[in-house]
Every structure is written in structure tokens, then in C-alpha cells.
Amino acid sequence: MPIARAAKRATARLGAVVLAGALLAACGSSDSSDSSDGAGGKVTLNVDLFGSFGFKEAGLYEEYQKLNPNITIKQSDTQDEADYWKSLQTRLAGGGGLADVQGVEVGRIASVTQQQSDKFQDLKEFGADKLKGEFAEAKWSAATTKDGKILGLGTDVGPEAMCYRTDLFKEAGLPTDREELAKKWATWDGYLELGKEYKKKAPAKSAWLDSVGSLYGIMIGQEKERYYDASGELIYDKNPAVKEAWDTSVEAAEAGLSAKLDQWSPQWNQAFAAGSFATIPCPAWMLGYIKGQAGDGGQGKWDIAKLPGGAGNWGGSYLSIPRAAKHKEEAYKLIEWLTAPEQQAKVFQKQGNFPSSTGAIEKIADAKDEYFSGAPIGQIFGDAAKEAPVQVLGVHDQNVMQQITNALSEVERKGTSSEKAWGTAKKGVDNVIG
């Protein structure tokens, strides 16, 4: 997330620019074994993603097409990962409308490996097993089935930090130095206390954070076990880490610290440029999204500090190939190239998506971002990536997350009590999981 990687991110991822919001039409799928689309062996590869993976923005498609003149790449985007996943499930069930390359958010990868392995190509058939040492072990193993099938190559991971508006902090009389802030909000209690100070002198129409859903998401990303334990048992309703993240988010909502914006909504997108919030929990992939939404006018107004409460991970994605894809071999060559260290480093430099390739991580260790006031993003996110826990992933991680954040929105927007909203979340989880 890709938010978004997270929610996306994005993921989350699992975003970096304003993207097409409509669901995709059929993307030229076929079971044909013919590897070309027309005269001269020309091949069009359809790449279907959610949010923004940064490939287009970093010029990688253009570069690949110059290296491979017989290849044309067409990318389609769905902004909201939940909409994307729902559409993908429909197409997988029917076998039609599938692209040659499909993005998969990290919160969905367990569903792919445990429940849908028959619908995705085993990349080992194209030699992907030789790449194992080039990726972080947690990233690699999550896309590998128990019987050894490799169903995706990792793009990014989502080490977490806190992004903030220095101009708004100054107006409210708060310090702007990233090191000083990291000390003041070393804990989440400290973060909320600083938010209450901000509220007293905040500029007009500006809240402390964008939404309590993003606060919850970033906090739960600091935990090894969230919704499932290592045995695969669903534990979200009795996990103290989930309760702590929920209670903290409820406190933020009841204290009026939130701008009450639904992530990925048009209003949320507009709020980046309008200064509607002063802080936003940001996995690395969020940097590109902020740049895209805040635009040139936001340059130098943003900065990045260490996250309260310790390191965590939110989002990250994979590139997979459906069994029904028309050009599987050509698609594999493309995704192997896109996820190679050189290309992952380029995406980070342009968009901020933190690489899952160990070679790329070494390349970007000293990177800084002038848009974010020269913040040492290589160090900030690199340290977070090293310290973040290796998370236990379950088949319905993303669904559980969505139901909980939906319920938090009721607290935030309607003033629903914590107890009633939690009951709504549990009913939602039961309905989704079945």
C-alpha cells in the first residue's frame, strides 16, 4: 500500500497521486497460449493495481519499454483497496477480466496463499526461487505456500513514522524540530497530550490528525499479533493490543482531535492542501501520496519524526500473476525487473515506498527528502524497518481491520459509545468471515 499501500497501505497500500476512483473494466484476460497480441510479436501487458505503487511516477514503465521495444505496459488503478479486492475476487471467480499482473496488499496475501493458490501462478516455474535471498525473509515467506509455491514478489514494506505540518505547528506555538517532537510524543499518551495543546491554539479549521482510523491503523501496525495468533486462531476480540489501540483511538475521537475524514475519500484528498490536519501517521508509502495531494505548495511545510510508541509496519504489497493471465512469461519478466533492487531504490527516491529488497535498502540508507524539509527518510524509515515486529498474517486481516475502522468512524462522526461501536465491529467481523 501500497495505503494504502493501507489501507494501503494502504499497503495499505497498502497512494501517491490522485487516481481513478472507478472500478476497472475487464483488462484483457484470456486463457490463450498465444504470447503476442499482434504483428511483429508485440505484447501488451495489463497491470492492475490499487493506490499507487510508484512505478509510473518513477518512470519505470517507460524505462522497461525502451529496454523491451516489443512490450507495451498499460496500468489501471483503483484508489480504494477494498473496492479493488472486491472486484478482483469477482473476476477470479469468473476467470475473466484479469490483468497480466495483479497487485496484492499484504493484508490479503494470507488469503492468496491459504485459500486461492489455485488461482495464481506459481512463480517458481519461472525461476523465482533463485531470488529468495534478495528479499527480507518475512516479506518472502508471507507469499510462499506451505507446499512451496511462490505466489508473489514483494514491492515495498510499510515502516511507520509521523508526518506533520511545521507551519501549522508554528501557528499553534508548538515546537517543530523532529528530534524534540520525538521526545515529546515518545508514547501515544504524549501524542494525545500534545494534540490537546494544539487544539487550544490551532489555526481555524485545522485538527490534530486526519482520522482516528489512521491512528488505530498505525498503532496496530506496531504489534506482532493483531487479529490472528501464530496457530491461525482469530484473537482480535481478546487481544490486549487491539483493545489498547481501540481505546486510544476512542480517546482521540472524544477529545475532538480528529478532522473526521475518511481515508481515501475526496474530502481527505483535498485536506492535504487545505491544512485540515497537522499530523498524519505515515507509513513510508504515504510520502508519495502526500506529495501528490498537497502539491508544490506543500513543499517545505511538511516534516517527519519518529513514531510514538516504537516501530511498526503498516502495509506493503506484492505483484502476482493470475493463472488466467494471457502473458504469464512476459508478466514474470516485468515483475522480476520491477522488484529488483535498482528499481525499488528508484521508487523510494521518487515516491517514498520503502523497499522490501535487501539490496535496495542498502542503496537508500542516506536518502533525504527536500519536500519534507530535508528529513533523513532513509534513516528514519530504515531504522523503523529494522525494529518493526514480524507480523502474524491471517486470511481475513484486512476484513477485520476494515470493520474495526468503520466502527471507529461511528464514534468519531456520530458520537456512538465505545461499547456500542465495538459491538458493531464484532457483528461486522462475524458477517464478513461467516
Automatic annotation (TrEMBL):
Leader sequence residues: 1-25
UniProt cross-references to Gene3D superfamilies, sorted A to Z: Periplasmic binding protein-like II (3.40.190.10)
Keyword check for Signal: yes
Keyword terms: Signal
Protein name as catalogued: Extracellular solute-binding protein
Alphabetical list of Pfam families matching this protein: SBP_bac_8
SUPFAM superfamilies membership: Periplasmic binding protein-like II (SSF53850)
Organism in which the protein naturally occurs: Streptomyces filamentosus (Streptomyces roseosporus)
Signal in keyword set: yes
